[in-house]
Design brief:
The protein is of the alpha+beta class and about 100 residues long. It contains two helices and four strands, in the order βαββαβ. α1 packs antiparallel against α2. The longest helix is centred in the first third of the chain and has 17 residues.
């Protein structure tokens, strides 16, 4: 399944700035950034349960907002991209 993760982290204090860095780093480790606070994540149901719990554990839900959009397995027909910052095909070959 593909999940779109968006977040808005309060950075009015140093703890918020640290949470923002931790959320961004966690998302970079499990998916691809498509905009500043937006990530696409490919995971099976078990992995997603772990990833979601990890992100919710980092956030302070009294100050921060996380949104998860389940795009499912047929995500290609649900996503249109226009403009710069084209994403890579997460299912395609990886050349190092």
């Amino acid at each position: 399944m593909y999940v779109l993760v968006t977040y808005d982290i309060s950075t009015s204090d140093p703890k918020g700035q640290k949470r923002l860095r931790r959320i961004a780093k966690a998302c970079e480790n499990i998916g691809q950034r498509v905009q500043n606070s937006v990530f696409e994540i490919k995971a099976d149901a078990g992995q997603w349960t772990i990833y979601k719990a990890m992100l919710l554990d980092i956030a302070d839900l009294s100050q921060d907002s996380l949104r998860f959009y389940n795009l499912g397995n047929n995500w290609e027909r649900r996503v249109e991209h226009h403009g710069i910052k084209a994403s890579y095909n997460i299912d395609g070959p990886l050349i190092m």
